[in-house]
Specification:
306 residues; five-stranded parallel beta sheet
Amino acid sequence: MKKYLILLLTCLSFNTVQAASEEAPHKTIYLITPSRSLSTVFTRMMSERGDFDVYSEPAQRAFMNKYWPKSNSLFNESSPVDFEALKALLMQGKESRNIFAKEMGYAVKDFLREDPSILKDPNVHVAFLVRKPHSVTLSRYFRNKDLVSTIEQLDRTRLVMGFEGVYEVLKLAKQYSPNPVTIILSEDLADHPEQVLHQFCDRVGIPFLKESLQWEDGGDNFQGATAWHEAKTPENMYHWHGHAINSTGFGKPTEYELDAKGVPTFGEVEDAGNRERLRGVYLENLFFYEKFLEEIPEGALVSTSA
């Protein structure tokens, strides 16, 4: 009799836990980042978990339609064409499953300022992944050198580096989000992926899955539109994210030259004119990066110290 009673209690306990799990609201993790900050590798990790629907920069088409409509051909027809469609996608999607969405700060700062309802949602957890602007500046330059060939393109480069946007979204998240924000520095993620991601998972209330830190090389025919609702066309996706697609885990990004005082030299850039333009881009984004660091709430920064 005692044996059957224990069995009954075990079944009741399992059913109670299962029911609670089924009734728990789905989470949305909203990752805001500047350009070239390891965010696509982070996206690959979230996709590898298997418990989230993943969206890679779903606001890109809406943003570009608003400011550079001629670039519409760079995006999949199924991607959100405006911010209302984007909002509907993210808010309705979470009714059936957990959602992870990675966005560039510049693409969503005005949208979230005008309509912060996503940030106000109690099931949305806002996180930031930020790399030092020196590395971002050069990584972006070598990925797309023509972005600094004219004054107009230089202004656009300053914008799409994304540090001002990330700073503005952090202020909005602090104002509106009912959940504490989480900040990850890309350099820490590259050096200590398991430690950083374990803390990240604890902070947003999801299980840490060590096996998600490794994945298969996506090869030359990676289906981004299926794997992570990639907004960009395959050719455009591979241009910007080819390295992450062909990765198999978190690796060390390229390090760039500093002088004896730790100041970026930009010596990797042969053209003197481009070197000076890039220095201006860097200094402008350094200003917002430092303001971002000053704005981080106490306890929000994932720490890798012993």
